[in-house]
Amino acid sequence: MTDTLTPVLTDNWDADRAWTLASYEERGGYAALDKAFAMTPDDVISTVKDSGLRGRGGAGFPTGMKWGFIPQDNPRPKYLVVNADESEPGTCKDIPLMMASPHTLVEGVIVSSYAIRANTAFIYVRGEVLHVIRRLQRAVQEAYLAGHLGKNIHGSGYDLDLIVHAGAGAYICGEETALLEGLEGRRGQPRLRPPFPAVAGLYASPTVINNVESIASVPSIITNGAGWFAGMGTEKSNGFGIFSLSGHVTRPGQYEAPLGITLRELIDLAGGMREGHELKFWTPGGSSTPLLTPEHLDVPLDFESVGAAGSMLGTRALQLFDETTCVVRAVLRWTEFYKHESCGKCTPCREGTWWLTQTLARLEKGQGDEADLDLLLDQCDNILGRSFCALGDGATSPISSSIQHFRDEYLAHLTHGGCPFDPAASTAFAPVGASA
Amino acid sequence: MTSDINGAESLERAGLDETTWAELREIADRYPEKRSGLLPMLHLVQSVEGRVTPEGIEACAEILGISAAEVNGVATFYTMYKRKPVGDYHVGVCTNTLCAVMGGDLIFERLKDHLDVGNDETTEDGKITLEHVECNAACDYAPVMMVNWEFMDNQTPESAVQVVDDLRAGREVHSTRGPRLCTWREAERVLAGFPDDRADEGPAAGPASLAGLSIARERGWTAGAASDRAEGESK
Ligand SMILES: Cc1cc2nc3c(=O)[nH]c(=O)nc-3n(C[C@H](O)[C@H](O)[C@H](O)COP(=O)(O)O)c2cc1C
Ligand code: SF4
Ligand code: FES
């Protein structure tokens, strides 16, 4: 039996000065290094494979398998790049992790780099989180001084340099090839694949790109074993993950649990929806994952089950909206976001997100007619699967799913001649009991 | 490639002081390939110049051996780089969906009104630049406001007005889960990779970050250790 919540990555966040090396080491931090160095790099990769760890950045690709794709006979240097861009609307787990315990990530970087035989690693962190960047810079500095980074780490003969790199504001740089462009000092536009980064990534060299939480999970797997990790979660979605609850719930925040927990259980732990209100719609994994409704409260939050329910587990960014929220307003705002963040490289996304915004804005004002809903779905059809990267696909998710579940609410805007909701009622500072 | 002598000449041309030139080069040298330094170099330009200036662009281009047009193309791609001078405090109100619904829209409206500026504009006293920003990875603290990219969690229109009033009056303001606020230029310097001394200020985590952990503590829930769980135990 596994406990309902399983703090591993979050376990030291309440420790005194948790971000410091002293606090981290006092709890056994950096012990995974010696254990890893006593293994061959290939054995470290096998352990991560056996654990069943799947990428925590959204797509759920098996991490150990990704590492195994690095061609070790390629004479070029190998690189590890940590994706700390965390900009998918609703996603808010990596930032508190790096703020509270940057050393968990640094330790993970060292073990992971050792496994793929990289001697240089990068943390690409979004620029808009100043204090998190300070904590990362300090952690890296402390790790160097303590001999966890640099030359001949722990006397193992293994060398690693780690560079903290601040981005400059661009959601698309979370897409791994756009991130590499940013890291090479260019406009963040995705690259054509193949070649995949594992073969030709940063500086055309073999590169592994992993999410913060994926890499931060590695030390615990090395310390406790693949079986320990695989013993949590569901059949094909092993281990634990941080579930981020936000919105109209009594206690929003971070809840670390085995994959497969349900939203019903999580809301229950979080003290229920805010008083006097009920859940209307939610995102399972950020705004790019199709909206779900209360009908889906008992869907196990693992990769397979959420997929079967018509959405995606994504980043476990559970944004919860109650009945005071206008779904059309919500979707319009996300669509404006995609339009703003479209990198402009391909026509379906660049033009398509513009058209989507126009059509939606008209509907939200109560203008246009029912045929506009079909127009929207048509426009989505022209973007989904035809865009150069997944940003375009993601832009269609809120629209098509909201029309599927809330067609009547769109129509209500037309009959009402505008939005029938009072925006004040949905705010966190609305008087208790206010309703739309 | 730039020789020392050319470097000295460009120093005249580009109007940045010698320290800045040296620091820009230092950033480029951190990377296996110099051009990787461009994003942090532009952050440094902003910290010195208060925005991305033509002089700053020239300097980056010269150090990296690329054209000014290329640097410009990068500078215009990323939203944190500003063409117009930014005030001492950049105030960003999150108006992405979740924060907007939770009150971000009302906060942004109130601040525009109170400061008498529009989006991406600076108050006459040069203190505050107001902008609406996208999701800043703090949705569990909605509605969120960022001041010089520090978290101001769980805001209301009133608390937001108080923050900007305090800043304009020169009173010390703290991030709700971070340090004393520095100026925008000082913040840009940290982003360029020159740390200040504030890493140890503020808590490890805010209350929402600890929501699940507190429950686990109360109920004695853990992920167990290797010894508690047989290898390959069925789920
Ligand atoms: C538009 C877009 C934004 C993304 N943003 C992020 C992000 O902020 N962080 C992240 O880890 N992955 C993000 N991803 C996914 C990455 O491309 C990549 O799959 C991931 O970093 C791989 O790491 P993982 O296997 O450890 O999950 C994004 C993808 C797209 C298409
Ligand atoms: S889908 Fe959008 S973000 Fe992706 S490459 Fe095309 S224009 Fe750029
Ligand atoms: S929506 Fe505002 S911080 Fe995420």
Automatic annotation (TrEMBL), chain A:
Belongs to the complex I 51 kDa subunit family. Coiled coil: none annotated. SUPFAM superfamilies: Nqo1 FMN-binding domain-like, Nqo1 middle domain-like, Nqo1C-terminal domain-like. NDH-1 shuttles electrons from NADH, via FMN and iron-sulfur (Fe-S) centers, to quinones in the respiratory chain. InterPro entries: ComplexI_51kDa_subunit, NADH-UbQ_OxRdtase_51kDa_CS, NADH-UbQ_OxRdtase_suF, Nuo51_FMN-bd, Nuo51_FMN-bd_sf, Nuop51_4Fe4S-bd, Nuop51_4Fe4S-bd_sf, Soluble_ligand-bd. Keywords: 4Fe-4S, Flavoprotein, FMN, Iron, Iron-sulfur, Metal-binding, NAD, Oxidoreductase, Quinone, Translocase. This is NADH-quinone oxidoreductase subunit F. Residues 328-373 form the NADH-ubiquinone oxidoreductase 51kDa subunit iron-sulphur binding domain. Its EC number is 7.1.1.-. Pfam families: Complex1_51K, NADH_4Fe-4S, SLBB. Its cofactor is [4Fe-4S] cluster; FMN. It catalyses: a quinone + NADH + 5 H(+)(in) = a quinol + NAD(+) + 4 H(+)(out). It comes from the Bacteria. GO terms for molecular function: NADH dehydrogenase (quinone) (non-electrogenic) activity.
TrEMBL record, chain B:
Its EC number is 1.6.5.9. It is an enzyme of class 1 (oxidoreductase). The keyword Acetylation does not apply. Transmembrane segments: none annotated. InterPro entries: NuoE-like (IPR002023), NuoE_dom (IPR042128), NuoE_N (IPR041921), Thioredoxin-like_sf (IPR036249). CDD domains: TRX_Fd_NuoE. Keywords: 2Fe-2S, Iron, Iron-sulfur, Metal-binding, Oxidoreductase. It comes from the Bacteria. NCBIfam families: nuoE_fam, PRK07539.1-1. Belongs to the complex I 24 kDa subunit family. PANTHER family: NADH DEHYDROGENASE [UBIQUINONE] FLAVOPROTEIN 2, MITOCHONDRIAL (PTHR10371:SF3), NADH DEHYDROGENASE UBIQUINONE FLAVOPROTEIN 2, MITOCHONDRIAL (PTHR10371). This is NADH-quinone oxidoreductase subunit NuoE. The lineage of its organism: Bacteria, Bacillati, Actinomycetota, Actinomycetes, Propionibacteriales. The gene is nuoE.
